Amino acid sequence: MRAALMYGAGDVRVEDRPDPRIVRPGDAVVRVGAACVCGSDLWPYGSMPATDTGRPMGHEFLGVVEETGADVSGLKPGDLVVAPFTYSDNTCDRCARGLHIACRNGGRYGFDGVDGGQGEAMRVPLADGTLVKLPVAADSALIPSLLALSDVMTTGHHGAVTAGVGRGDTVLVVGDGVVGLCAVIAARRRGAERIVLAGRHASRTTLGRHFGATDVVAERGAEGVARIRELTGGVDKVIEAVGTGRALDLALGAVRDGGTVSRLGVPQYEQGPIGPAVFMRNITLTGGASPARAYIEELLPDVLDGTIAPGRVFDRTYTLDHVPEAYRAMADRRVLKALVCP
C-alpha cells in the first residue's frame, strides 16, 4: 500500500509500505476513505530531527472495515467507521471517566508499529473500543464533517466543556485555526450568547462568523486585551486554541475575575503567568488534550442532521501522492486544513 512518512523537518514522502494485517485479536484493518493533515502535524514538520526510517503520519481518518480480529465483536467488514485521534479500549477506569486520551491500554497512531492514517489502509488496535460506526454511505456529502469528529471538532468541543461554557455566557476563542473555529461551533452549540474570536486572517474569521462568532478582534497583546475588555467588560470563559505564551497572556488578560480559561493549544512554553496576580483573581485554568472518543457519539447526531457542519474547515483536497504538497501549503498558511482522499 501507499502511505505518507515523515523523515524529518520538511521531509514528507509517500512510499510503498507492507499491507496492514491483523496482528492481535482486537485489531481491525480499515481501508481509508478520507484523512487529513492536522495542525499538530506541522510541529514535527518544522522541527523533527532527520531519521533513516521515517514515521508514519496521520491520526485523523475514516474508512471501511476490511477485516477484523477474532476478539472484535462490534464491527464487521463493510462497516463505515470514524476513528478518534488516539486508540483506546473504552473499558478501563480512565475511559470510564471520559479520559480516553489516557487509556491504560491505548496509544497513538504512527508509533510502536501502528500505521498512520495518511495511507491507503491501516491496522487499528483495540478496534471495538476505538472505532465508531457511521450510518451513512462512504460517498455521503457529510464525510468531511464526520471526519472532523476524529479530532478538530471533538477538540473544540473539549474546550467548551472544560471551560464550562453555558447558556448566556460571553466567550473568547483565541486563535482562528481549525481548532479555534471548531471551538466557536462548540461554544455556540452550548448556548453562548456572545463569542469573540481573536484572529487576524480575514478568510478564517469570516468562516468563524458563519460558525457563530459575534465579534472579531485582530489586535494582539495589550491592545487585544484592551479591545476585548472594551467590547465585553471581561469575558466569562476563554478557549485558548493556539498554545503560545502570548495567547495565554491574552486569555488571562481578557477573562473576568472568577472566570475560566481552557487551554486546547499544545503548550509551546514551559512556564506561564500563573503566579500571585492570577491566584488573587480566582481564575480557573483548565483544559488539556481532548478525549475525542468520549465525544463522538454525542456530536454525531448534530452532524447527521446538519445542526453543525465542521467539515467547512477543509478548504482544499489532495490525493495521497500529493500529501507532501498539502504539508507545504498548510505550513505556508495557503491552506487552512487539507483533506486527503487516498
What does this structure look like?
The chain is of the alpha/beta class and 342 residues long. It has helices at 42-47, 93-96, 127-130, 143-148, 152-163, 178-189, 202-211, 221-232, 245-254, 276-279, 296-304, 323-331, and strands at residues 2-8, 11-16, 28-36, 55-56, 61-68, 80-83, 86-87, 107-108, 121-124, 132-133, 170-174, 194-198, 215-217, 235-240, 255-263, 284-287, 316-319, 338-341. Strands 3, 5, 6, 9, 10, 17 and 18 form a seven-stranded mixed sheet that branches. It has a six-stranded parallel sheet with strand order 13-12-11-14-15-16, sandwiched between helices.
Topology:
Elements: E1 2-8, E2 11-16, E3 28-36, H1 42-47, E4 55-56, E5 61-68, E6 80-83, E7 86-87, H2 93-96, E8 107-108, E9 121-124, H3 127-130, E10 132-133, H4 143-148, H5 152-163, E11 170-174, H6 178-189, E12 194-198, H7 202-211, E13 215-217, H8 221-232, E14 235-240, H9 245-254, E15 255-263, H10 276-279, E16 284-287, H11 296-304, E17 316-319, H12 323-331, E18 338-341
Parallel strand pairs: 11-12, 11-14, 12-13, 14-15, 15-16, 17-18
Antiparallel strand pairs: 1-2, 1-4, 3-5, 3-9, 3-18, 5-6, 6-10, 7-8
Helix pairs in contact: 5-6, 6-7, 8-9
Question: Summed up, what is this model?
Answer:
The protein is globular. The chain has 342 residues and is of the alpha/beta class. The chain contains twelve helices and 18 strands.
Average residue pLDDT: 97
SS-based class: alpha/beta
CA-CA gap between termini:
10 Å
Q: Would you list the SSEs in sequence order as H and E? A: EEEHEEEEHEEHEHHEHEHEHEHEHEHEHE
Let me know the number of strands. 18
What is the overall silhouette? globular
**The named CATH superfamily of the largest domain:** Medium-chain alcohol dehydrogenases, catalytic domain
* Helix content percent band: 25-40%
Amount of beta strand: 25-35%
* Largest beta-sheet details: 7 strands, mixed
Return the CATH topology of the largest domain. Answer: Quinone Oxidoreductase, Chain A, domain 1
| Annotation field: number of helices | 12
Outline the low-pLDDT stretches. Answer: none
Radius of gyration from the CA trace?
Answer: 20 Å
CATH architecture of the largest domain: Alpha-Beta Complex
CATH class membership of the largest domain: Alpha Beta
Number of domains: 2
